[in-house]
Every structure is written in structure tokens, then in C-alpha cells.
Design brief:
- The complex is a heterodimer of chains A (about 725) and B (about 170).
- Among the domains of chain A are: about 190 residues, 3-Layer(aba) Sandwich (Dimethylsulfoxide Reductase, domain 2); about 140 residues, Barwin-like endoglucanases.
- Chain A has 25 helices and 28 strands.
- A 7-stranded mixed β-sheet of chain A has the order 6-5-17-16-15-7-8, with helices on both faces.
- In chain A, helix 9 packs parallel to helix 15 and helix 12 crosses helix 13.
- In chain A, about 55% of the residues are buried.
- Chain B has a domain of about 100 residues.
- Chain B is elongated, with a radius of gyration of 21 Å.
- The chains are: A alpha/beta (about 725), B mainly alpha (about 170).
- At the A-B interface, helix 1 and strand 1 of A face helix 1 and strand 1 of B.
- Strand 1 of chain A pairs antiparallel with strand 1 of chain B.
Chain lengths: ~725, ~170
């Protein structure tokens, strides 16, 4: 009989033999292309410039192409947003391209509606089904066509808008769970400009961040990462100081000189405490002239009052106020967690007030409002369609869900990565409402929770295979237009959404055909930019049009004393006695709002703070955990009044007490094998509540309870964030 | 235990032989998927080698022509011949042709075609003698180090180790 050792010997020897066999010298078959890619030389790399669409930041990329295959994505050094840098999510774009679960053929429902069971069909049949649906809707009630997408910009948005307008339906809804509604309203209130500003991080001397995790997620992480590096190290005599207020020590907070924990939703009070000190002590000329503010009620917001609200110390707030005022130019920024409370606009307006008191609006090292429309002046009324939309679209989404439920839509066209069935609060019952629409057509590269509800799925190319243009929401003076081009020949049978819309418009004829008069989306782009008098070939080689000469920025704040933001408390659903902790959710650095969860490279990317991989977790502070009788690595049931899920505990050494934090992005049920079984979906814990002024989604608005629960397996981590203690499940 | 030891030795030996066998058998004259004749194209119709092996001038590998290049002519020329019909079928199906490798050079040797062809002006037939007369291509020249060095010495070009063994 073989004993265990003998068996292992044979196993080892067999493995060696297998390896030895694999060392066959040269490939015996030489397989040339059927049609070779343009300009390729064997063994030589070609680099193509294009645009990254892994998130909304719109970084420029260059992709190494060898023998017709994309091998590596890097940042485009000429691009003003990311200046040659690229984040992990961008790098992982290759996995989307080569993903084994990518859709390569149109899918037709082959089972009960919503079952996610499909069979492959040809494009001819798919387009016939699409046209049958569109013809039927147009004949009876054109306004009952719904288009629900991610926020689009550039000519992709223009094509969609023209299509819907010519079709006769006003129901074009774009959903972005991380929309900037509160920022827009706060900027309007504080600076008189309803737009997103440019933050000159690189030129500032003192940066105050209020829950702004700008180095990891948010509007443009690579741009801010690069600017942050320059703020810290690019000036010979100045090393900018960075102070972070927020509920938890994120990766961004960990990069700060000082992290001051505050309770969720109290960022605005911390900012008003700082403003109080600045005005009281007349620390800047603007603060000295703000007597109006003082009398309007700022005198009530003492550092002591702020400390009481935030759970921090009054002395810290006073010290920060004095440092901020004496190190000009200073800059105050706020991020998603401050914006997505029910009092988001208050928080952000209070932060805006600090910029006004520091007098840094429109100055180097401060904030400015570029005139982004100027680049597209020749487009007239349609110019606005090309710019990045900043709103979440939440009110329109809710209205659309209501209309769906009442049977008001006869057909829905869905597209984009924001996956409403996954990211909307469960109480809206999006999936149930969507299935009331008789015909659902999705444009997608992957089946996810939303697209799998469709009747027809039309496969689209990945961003590495399509033509396009893009305008980034941050990181340039409004003068950068990024151009996208296929970096490889598409190797699945896909058609882009604008191409399908253009073809459908032609079939529909009449006003639709007249509104979209091109043969293809590429022709649309070529004609649009040819009209701007540029060398398109050259521009595509460079990755876009970067004049480097931005037009004059928009006008700054109104003169006179700035208004005092109306103080508002953040509301949290749930009875504190039953749900003792406040839930803080944040987008995952790797998975974003959840769209990255099907890419193994992103799943295996350790979170910079928790160092966990392939699963989500719930973070609590040591004192809170001790009071609840739970310890690091325990399984718990996280329950809110709206849902519950199970997760492992990560004992976070630097999180405000009384807070439980969870990263968003995991918990998919229909996003392929890599995203499946990775823990619960934290979106399912959230209420449908809204930010009170803008009606944007208020994610930071519920309380939860943690109850120790037996769970299978363990959270796999690399190291302890403080380098101490031993985990059993290290990588 | 002796019997165990015999199993330990026997199993990998059999496996290794089984795995190596295809490699050994490939030394026999290759059966190409299409009976392509270099003689017809090069000697009879005077096509330049570099017309089909276009990468030879710019890349380390000379490359095998893509199906689209064959079809540049064979869309109209000799379309009724059985072998050309086979080719047309590949084109119609958009399938690549898996040619069997004819010329082998040890994998520890770096041989940049473009350096020989473009800069050295070495005729193709120096290393591929007689291929222009072949109906079925075979390798007639063994690439021994001595043979390479004779030429390198004669032309006064580098004979440093790392010129070829990088």
C-alpha cells in the first residue's frame, strides 16, 4: 500500500514531469491573423491613447498593444487630469476587456421575466426585436419610452438626448448614486455659482478636508492624488499641511497630518466652529469684515458647541482655525460622506464659508469655477449636453419608479454601470417596478442585477474597443476634451449604444432620422470635431485636445458679507435603543459603487486600511466593540430598520465611537462568479431618505445594531493596520 | 517499500514520455493545412519574399502572412483549384490558418530578422537555402553556432556572446 509520504512523492514527481513536458521548445503551429491590426509589427508594441471609463473621473490613458492585443494600460502623460498616472481601477480595465463572462452576442429572454435566463441570438433578430418594440411604442404613446442610464457626457449623451427628443419622450433619466447635488446647491449658496469648482490642491499651503476621501474615491482620485503629492513635496520651502475631519480614518485621512474624528453628519458644525474662531479673532481680512455673519448667529457656534456636537475637542478646533487662517492660501474641501447626510447642503455650505473667510476663491491655491461651456460654444443650445452632469438624478429615478409601478412606461432602454437594482435602496422596490414595464432592453457588457431583468440584452464594446469623447468633471480649466478610440479590434460581436441608436433612428425615419443624420457614431464624432477646426488625427494620437490655455473662469462670489448657512442636524432612521450605532457607508476604493466587483484584480486588491480582500466587513471602534461584547474577526448580523446582512468585524483603531462603517460595492447576486458570495450588500441597509434641500440620496441616514452571529469562514487580511497582533487568516 | 519506489520512478517516466512524444513526432515532414508552394510563388511568379513575410524588414520575427494577404490575389487568381478553395473557406469562415513550423532556431538564441534583412542586406536564401524551389517547404540548414559565426566573422560583425544570447 502507498502511504501518505509515498503518495506525495509520486504527486511531486508527476507535477515535475508535467512541467518538464510544458517546456517544449517552440510553438509547433504558427497561426497568423486573418486580418492583421493596422500598423502592427510582430514583437513591437504600439501605444494608443484613449479615455478610461472605469469611473467618472475621465482620465486619459495610453494602452500598449502587441500583436493586436491590449497588454497594459497606463496614464496619458499629456492629459491634464491624471498626468501620466493611473489607479488600480483603471489598470483593471484590461480584465473587463478579456473577461470570460463578457457578453459577446445579443441575449433574448429564455424563461420567466426577471429570471436572468437568456439564449444567444443574432444581431439581425435582436435589432428586429428592438425595432418592433420601438415601433409599437411610437405608434401608441411615444412618451412611454424610458431611457435609464448612468450619467453620460460627450457625444454619447448628445446622441441619446437627440434620439429621445426626436422619438417624443421626455423620460431620459441618468442615475448616479454618488451625484454631486449637495455640492451644487452649497456652491450656489456660498459662491453664487451652481457648478463644481476646481480645487488647486497643488498650490495650497493648508488643506482642510471634511470627510473628503479625495485620494481614493470621489470626483477624480488620480488627479487629486497627483496634486496632493505636489502640495506635499513639489515646493522647495513649503510642505502643505493637511487636516482631516471625518467619522473614520480612511486612506485619505491616514495621509493627513492630523485626523480629527467627528460624528457622522456633524462636519458642518466643525466648520462653523472654525469660522467662529476666525471671525471672533479677526484672523483674515475677510473674517474681520464679516460682522454680519457674527450677528446672524455665528457667535452661537463656539468651538465648545462644535466640540459637543462632533464629539471632538474645542481646543483642536481653535488650533486648526488659527493655523488655517495663518497659512494662506488655505483650502477647505468636503466629500461624499458630508454631502450624503440629510443635512448635506448645510455641511457643504459651512465648508464653503471657510473658503470665503480665507479669501481664496478665484486665487491660486484656492478654488475657482472654470467656464467649461466655453470649449463647446459652437454647439449652441446643445453644448450643455456634452458636459459632465453632476446631479444624482435621484428625484427623477424615484419618479420613474413610481411611473413604472403604475404601468406608465411601455418600454425601457437601460444602460450603464450604475446598476440601479443594486444601488437603489431596497424600499423603492426598483426591480419589481421595472418588471411592470412590458419591454426592457439593456445595453451592457455584463449581466448584473439590473440588466438580468431585461427581455433583450444588446452587448456593447468595452471602453477599450469604442470611439468616443469625454469631458472630465475635474482637473482641468474647462479646456480639455479627451478623445477615445478603439485600442484593439473588438473581439466580441458588439455594437455601441450610440451606434445602435443611430441605426434605430434611421429605421424609424422621420424626425428621428433627421436628428441623427450620421452613418455611425464615429462619423458623428468626426463631423463634430472637424467643425471645430482641429487636426483630429493628431488629437487622437495625443488622446485629446488639451489647449493648456483655459478661458477666463466664471465669476466668483457675490460681494458683501457671505450668508450664514442654516444649521441643520443630520437625521438617522431607527430607534437608538434598538439600533445603537450610526451606519457610515463609503464607496470602496477598489470596487467603487460596486461596478468593479466582477474583476478579480480589484477583488484581490487589499483595502488600504482593513487590508481585507474578496469580501466586505463592518468596522467598529474598540470601545464600541467592547460595549457590544464583540471582538475583531467575529461574525455579526448588521441590522437596520430596512434590512440586515452578515459581516465580519474589523476592529478599526481610528473610527468615531458609536459608528459602524461598511464599504459599498460587495454583495452582488447577479454579477458573475467573481462577484458572487462576497458578503451582503450594504445598500440594502439604507433607507430611501433624501438630503433635505436637494432630494439627493442620503446614504448616511440610518442607525444599525450589531449582534454576534456564527459565520462560516473568516475575513482574509494581509496585515494589522497598526502592525500589531496576529491574524490567523493572513494572505 | 521497494514496490512503492518502483511506482515512484515508473509513473513520472511514463508521463514524461507521453508528454514528450508529440514533440518528437513533430520532427517528421510536416503536414501543412494547405499545400502552399514556395516554388510557384517565388521562382515561377517572382514574388519578393518580403511581400508575404513583411515583418522581416521591421521585426525580430519574419511572420507568416495573414489570410487577408493571401486573399489579395486569390480572390481572383486560381479560384477553382482545390487548395485555393480551402484557403477561400478559411477566409469565408474568418478562421486563421494554423501552419506547421518549418524552420527552427534554438530558443536561447535571439535572431532579429530586421537586423539581417534591413541592415545586413543578407539574402533570405542564405539561411533558408532552396526554399524557393520547394513545393513543400523544409528546413535544409541546421543553425549551428559555428555556421552562424562563420558568416558573422566573414562580414566583420559582432561575435560577442550577448549579440545572440541575450
Amino acid at each position: 500500500m502507498l502511504n501518505r509520504r509515498g503518495f506525495l512523492k509520486i504527486g511531486g514527481a508527476t507535477a515535475f514531469a508535467a512541467l518538464f513536458g510544458g517546456c517544449e521548445r517552440l510553438p509547433k503551429k504558427l497561426v497568423p491573423f486573418v486580418i492583421p491590426p493596422e500598423n502592427q509589427a510582430l514583437g513591437e508594441s504600439l501605444w494608443y491613447a484613449s479615455v478610461c471609463r472605469q469611473c467618472e473621473a475621465g482620465c486619459g490613458i495610453v494602452v500598449r498593444n502587441s500583436e493586436g492585443r491590449a497588454k497594459k494600460i497606463e496614464g496619458n502623460p499629456l492629459h491634464p487630469v491624471n498626468r501620466g498616472k493611473l489607479c488600480a481601477r483603471g489598470q483593471a480595465g484590461l480584465q473587463a476587456l478579456y473577461h470570460p463572462e463578457r457578453l459577446g452576442k445579443p441575449l433574448r429572454l429564455d424563461g420567466p421575466r426577471g429570471s436572468g435566463k437568456f439564449r444567444e441570438i443574432g444581431w439581425e433578430e435582436a435589432l428586429r426585436l428592438l425595432m418592433t418594440g420601438l415601433d409599437g411604442v411610437r405608434a401608441e404613446a411615444p412618451a412611454s419610452l424610458l431611457m435609464l442610464t448612468e450619467p453620460m457626457r460627450g457625444h454619447r449623451n448628445l446622441v441619446s438626448a437627440r434620439f429621445m427628443k426626436a422619438f417624443g419622450s421626455p423620460h431620459r433619466v441618468a442615475w448616479d448614486p454618488f451625484g454631486q447635488d449637495a455640492h451644487l446647491s452649497a456652491n450656489e449658496a456660498a459662491y453664487g455659482v451652481r457648478d463644481l469648482p476646481e480645487h488647486d490642491l497643488a498650490g495650497t499651503r493648508y488643506l482642510l478636508s471634511f470627510s473628503g476621501d479625495f485620494l481614493e474615491t470621489g470626483l477624480s482620485p488620480v488627479h487629486f492624488g497627483h496634486a496632493y503629492g505636489r502640495m506635499r513635496a513639489a515646493r522647495p520651502t513649503v510642505r502643505g499641511k493637511f487636516v482631516h475631519f471625518g467619522p473614520r480614518l480612511s486612506m485619505t485621512a491616514a495621509s493627513a497630518d492630523a485626523f480629527l474624528p467627528v460624528a457622522p453628519g456633524t462636519e458642518g458644525f466643525a466648520a462653523l466652529g472654525i469660522a467662529h474662531v476666525m471671525v471672533k479673532e479677526k484672523l483674515t481680512p475677510e473674517a474681520a469684515g464679516a460682522a454680519g455673519l457674527w450677528n446672524a448667529g455665528l457667535k452661537e457656534f463656539t468651538p465648545e458647541a462644535a466640540g459637543k456636537k462632533t464629539g471632538g475637542s474645542a481646543a483642536d478646533i481653535e488650533a486648526v482655525a488659527r493655523e488655517f487662517a495663518s497659512n494662506q492660501p488655505g483650502l477647505a474641501m468636503a466629500g461624499d460622506a458630508a454631502a450624503s447626510c440629510t443635512n448635506g447642503v448645510f455641511n457643504l455650505s459651512a465648508v464653503g464659508l471657510l473658503n470665503l473667510l480665507a479669501g481664496n476663491v478665484g486665487k491660486p491655491g484656492g478654488i475657482s469655477f472654470p467656464n467649461r461651456l466655453a470649449a463647446f460654444a459652437s454647439f449652441g443650445a446643445e453644448a450643455g449636453l456634452l458636459l459632465p452632469p453632476a446631479e444624482s438624478g435621484y428625484p427623477a429615478v424615484r419618479e420613474a419608479v413610481e411611473t413604472m409601478r403604475k404601468g406608465g412606461f411601455r418600454m425601457a432602454l437601460l444602460s450603464g454601470a450604475t446598476n440601479p437594482a443594486f444601488t437603489l435602496p431596497p424600499s423603492l422596490k426598483f426591480a419589481e417596478a421595472l418588471l411592470k414595464v412590458p419591454t426592457i432592453v439593456s445595453f451592457a457588457s455584463f449581466l448584473d442585477e439590473t440588466t438580468s431583468l431585461s427581455d433583450l440584452v444588446l452587448p456593447v464594446p468595452t471602453f477599450l474597443e469604442e470611439w468616443g469623447d469625454d469631458i472630465a468633471p475635474a482637473g482641468h480649466g474647462g479646456d480639455a476634451i479627451t478623445l477615445g478610440q478603439p485600442v484593439v479590434t473588438p473581439f466580441r460581436d458588439t455594437r455601441s449604444m450610440p451606434d445602435v441608436l443611430i441605426a434605430a433612428a434611421k429605421e424609424l425615419g422621420g424626425p428621428a432620422a433627421a436628428a441623427l443624420p450620421w452613418g455611425s457614431f464615429r462619423e458623428c464624432l468626426d463631423k463634430a470635431y472637424a467643425g471645430m477646426g482641429i487636426d483630429l488625427e493628431e488629437a487622437r494620437r495625443n488622446g485629446g485636445i488639451f489647449s493648456g490655455k483655459p478661458g477666463a473662469p466664471r465669476k466668483g462670489p457675490k460681494a458683501g458679507s457671505p450668508p450664514l448657512p442654516k444649521a441643520a442636524e443630520a437625521a438617522f432612521a431607527g430607534d437608538p435603543s434598538r439600533y445603537p450605532l450610526v451606519l457610515h457607508v463609503y464607496p470602496s476604493i477598489a470596487l467603487s459603487d460596486g461596478r468593479g466587483a466582477n474583476l478579480p484584480w480589484l477583488q484581490e486588491l487589499p483595502d488600504p486600511v482593513a487590508t481585507a480582500v474578496w469580501r466586505n466587513w463592518v468596522e467598529v471602534g474598540p470601545k464600541t466593540a467592547a460595549a457590544l461584547g464583540i471582538s475583531d474577526g467575529d461574525g455579526v448580523t448588521v441590522s437596520s430598520p430596512f434590512g440586515s446582512l452578515q459581516a465580519f468585524v474589523f476592529l478599526h483603531p481610528a473610527i468615531a465611537e458609536g459608528v459602524a462603517a461598511m464599504p459599498l460595492g460587495q454583495g452582488h447576486s447577479r454579477y458573475g462568479k467573481y462577484a458572487a458570495d462576497r458578503g451582503g450588500n450594504p445598500y440594502a441597509l439604507l433607507p430611501a431618505s433624501v438630503e433635505s434641500a436637494t432630494k439627493a440620496p442620503a446614504r448616511q441616514s440610518t442607525r444599525v445594531s450589531l449582534v454576534k452571529t456564527k459565520m462560516k469562514g473568516a475575513l482574509v487580511r494581509t496585515v494589522h493596520p497598526e502592525g500589531q497582533g496576529l491574524y490567523e487568516n493572513i494572505l | 517499500m521497494k514496490r512503492d519506489a518502483a511506482i515512484v520512478l515508473l509513473v513520472p517516466t511514463v508521463l514524461a514520455l507521453a508528454l514528450l512524444f508529440p514533440a518528437l513526432s513533430a520532427a517528421a515532414p510536416p503536414g501543412q493545412p494547405i499545400r502552399y508552394s514556395h516554388k510557384v510563388h517565388v521562382t515561377d511568379y517572382k514574388l519578393d519574399c518580403r511581400f508575404c513575410h513583411a515583418n522581416a524588414t521591421k521585426s525580430a520575427s519574419a511572420g507568416i502572412p495573414p489570410v487577408s494577404k493571401c486573399m489579395m490575389c486569390h480572390r481572383v487568381i486560381a479560384t477553382d483549384r482545390p487548395e485555393i478553395r480551402k484557403l477561400a473557406q478559411y477566409w469565408k469562415d474568418r478562421k486563421p490558418i494554423a501552419w506547421v513550423r518549418v524552420t527552427e532556431l534554438q530558443e536561447y538564441t535571439y535572431f532579429p530578422h530586421f537586423r539581417m534583412v534591413t541592415y545586413g542586406k543578407v539574402p533570405c536564401l542564405t539561411c533558408h537555402p532552396g526554399i524557393d524551389k520547394d513545393d513543400i517547404a523544409v528546413q535544409r540548414q541546421e543553425f549551428s553556432m559555428g555556421w552562424c559565426l562563420t558568416c558573422h566573422r566573414g562580414r566583420g560583425v559582432s561575435i560577442d556572446c550577448w549579440t545572440c544570447h541575450i
